[in-house]
Amino acid sequence: MRTNIPYETAIIRHPKEVAEVMAKLQKGKSKEKNAKPEELEWCYNWCVSVSCYSFNDIISGKARDDREEEDAMSIDDRVKDFASRCRVMLAGSKGRWWGLATTPISPTPNEIIAPQRERFETEVADKARFDAMSKEEQDAEIQGLLGQLKGPGFVMVKI
């Protein structure tokens, strides 16, 4: 994923990474090789590692469902868990050229953490709202959401 940041933030927080990206640009053959650092678009390029299991793991019972464990976590613990699995690199681009610094950025920047915290808070609030509904209200909500999946490949089935 990409999270754009201004050049000023990039140079203040990550001067070595900016220098590395600029060195890659200047050594290359891009028509943008003479661009100044402030002319580039800067961003955090990031990903999150997730657990994966083989079909054999699922059948043998080695795979576990992390959702129950996650549901028991506080929002702060979810954010810490997310940050521990997040890998962040600084990237710069101009035109068709794109360069990535090789040094991971740690700790995970707030520009990435803040939206995730909001997402976790929304998930917890939605789950609490749903859990507070009666079974009939839950079923009606589920059917309403399923009804929004209209289009090719989706068929509405009432249970």
Tag the structure with descriptive keywords.
159 residues, four-stranded antiparallel beta sheet, 7 helices, elongated
Strand count: 4
- What's the domain count? 1
Largest sheet: 4 strands, antiparallel
Number of helices: 7
Report strand order across the widest sheet: 1-2-3-4
Runs with pLDDT <50, length 5+?
none
Bin the helical content: 40-55%
Shape: elongated
Structure description:
This protein has 159 residues and is α+β, with helices and mostly antiparallel strands. It has one domain. It is 50% helix and 16% strand. The chain is built from 7 helices and 4 strands.
Outline:
The two termini are 38 Å apart. With 159 residues, the protein is an alpha+beta fold. The chain has helices spanning 7-13, 15-27, 55-60, 66-72, 75-85, 110-131, 135-147; strands at 2-5, 41-48, 86-94, 97-100.
Detail the topology: elements first, then pairings.
Layout (H helix, E strand, L loop, with lengths): L1 E4 L1 H7 L1 H13 L13 E8 L6 H6 L5 H7 L2 H11 E9 L2 E4 L9 H22 L3 H13 L12
Antiparallel strand pairs: 1-2, 2-3, 3-4
Helix pairs in contact: 1-2, 5-6
